[in-house]
Amino acid sequence: MLNRSVNKFYSSDDSIGGNKALMFSDILEVPNIVLLGEPGSGQTYLFEFASQYEQGNYTTARSFIIHADDSYIDKRLYIDALDEKRSRVNNIDSISEIIKHVKQIKPSSVRVSCRASDWLGETDLELFKPYFETSGGYCVVALEKLTENEIDRILNPSFDSSDKNAIKNRRIEFIKVVLWHYRFDFVLKMG
């Protein structure tokens, strides 16, 4: 599902989206994208889906540093979970490692996701900017909260919105998944 609402924070081109509400699909023409979001908001799901849609390569930041090779050349590169690479090694400079590998393999475009609370704003953007600006520009966006319609479409694309009981049950299941994710994330950070 590419039609997730996003809020633009920074862009190398002010004409991107103008002042209108944006969907993630609206910014796919931008060569380099940073996607921010809260835990469990759907960055991974969106990146997995979008990488298939764009026939790109999806990887996590941690795996990318280990496995970056020629298979990424001239393809759209989706690097998920920058925050997890950073928090596991307690090293802000992990971004420099990623940029070094990106420069070596030369993908056609780069998309990076990070938890909003772990993105260091201008500090992180300044590290990416030299690469982004020489490879066609960039856009930093954050996922908006899911609307009820988006939740229903994610839970079941062929969903009958007139069945109120089914809606209630699917939302309960959705909440269980989100709560499990928060619990799992808490355990990882504690331990």
How would you sum up this structure, described in words?
The chain is of the alpha/beta class and 191 residues long. The chain has a seven-stranded mixed sheet. Strand 4 (57-60), helix 2 (61-67) and strand 5 (76-80) form a beta-alpha-beta unit. It is 45% helix and 19% strand. It has two domains: 5-143, Rossmann fold; 148-190. It is built from seven helices and seven strands. Helix 4 (94-105) packs parallel to helix 5. The mean pLDDT is 84.
Order of helices and strands: EEEHEHEHHEHEHH
What is the total number of structural domains?
Answer: 2
Number of helices: 7
Strand proportion, as a percent range, falls in 15-25%
The radius of gyration over CA amounts to: 17 Å
CATH-assigned fold name of the largest domain:
Rossmann fold
CATH class of the largest domain: Alpha Beta
- Uncertain stretches of 5 or more adjacent residues: none
Instruction: Write down the overall geometry.
Output: globular
Helix proportion? 40-55%
Major sheet: order of its strands? 2-1-7-3-6-5-4
Largest sheet: number of strands, sense, barrel closure: 7 strands, mixed
The N- and C-terminal alpha carbons lie at a distance of: 33 Å
Extended strand count: 7
Mean pLDDT: 84
Q: At CATH's second level, what is the architecture of the largest domain?
A: 3-Layer(aba) Sandwich
Summarize the structure.
The protein is an alpha/beta fold and 191 residues long. Helices cover 45% and strands 19% of the residues.
